[in-house]
Amino acid sequence: VQLVESGGGLVQPGGSLRLSCAASGFTFSNYDMRWYRQAPGKEREYVAYINGGGASTNYRDSVKGRFTISRDNAKNTVYLQMNSLKSDDAAVYYCKVDRLGRAYWGQGTQVTVSS
């Protein structure tokens, strides 16, 4: 199993970014996917969830209405569209899959929100 995140960067408050997580080594469409984030000095926290078919999603309260999780099962990729970014959104963002009782994480992509 391999997860590779990309799309992070520096963005001004109010700006947008789209993160991608390319998956390999498993049947992607069979598995739910999640995004997490970790800011310096803080614990890693859940951000968003999408089921295998893409029809069911869930978000932490602080990102509802601003972030959208989606997936393209033909490309084995899950996305996180982030709009109206705030300084509190700055963190390393990780995608995660739980498979056969084990959690797999990507290496993360840094999101910096600053003017």
Q: Determine the number of helices (DSSP H or I, runs of at least 4 residues).
A: 0
Radius of gyration over C-alpha positions, nearest whole angstrom: 13 Å
Shape: globular
Low-confidence stretches: none
Structural class: mainly beta
How many β-strand runs?
A: 11
Output the helix-strand order. EEEEEEEEEEE
Largest sheet: 7 strands, mixed
Kindly state the mean pLDDT as a whole number? 97
Spatial gap, N to C terminus: 37 Å
Strand content: over 45%
Could you estimate the helical fraction of the residues in percent? Answer: under 10%
Describe the structure.
By secondary structure, the protein is an all-beta fold. Helix content is 0%, strand content 53%. Strands 2, 4, 5, 6, 9, 10 and 11 form a seven-stranded mixed sheet that branches. Strands 1-3-8-7 form a four-stranded antiparallel sheet, with no helix packed on it. Strand 4 and strand 5 form a beta hairpin.
Give a short summary of the structure:
0% of the residues lie in helices and 53% in strands. By secondary structure, the chain is an all-beta fold.
Keywords:
seven-stranded mixed sheet; 115 residues; single chain; mainly beta; four-stranded antiparallel sheet
Write the layout of secondary structure elements.
Elements lengths: L1 E5 L2 E3 L5 E8 L8 E6 L6 E6 L6 E3 L7 E6 L4 E6 L8 E9 L2 E4 L3 E5 L2
Parallel strand pairs: 2-11
Antiparallel strand pairs: 1-3, 3-8, 4-5, 4-9, 5-6, 7-8, 9-10, 9-11
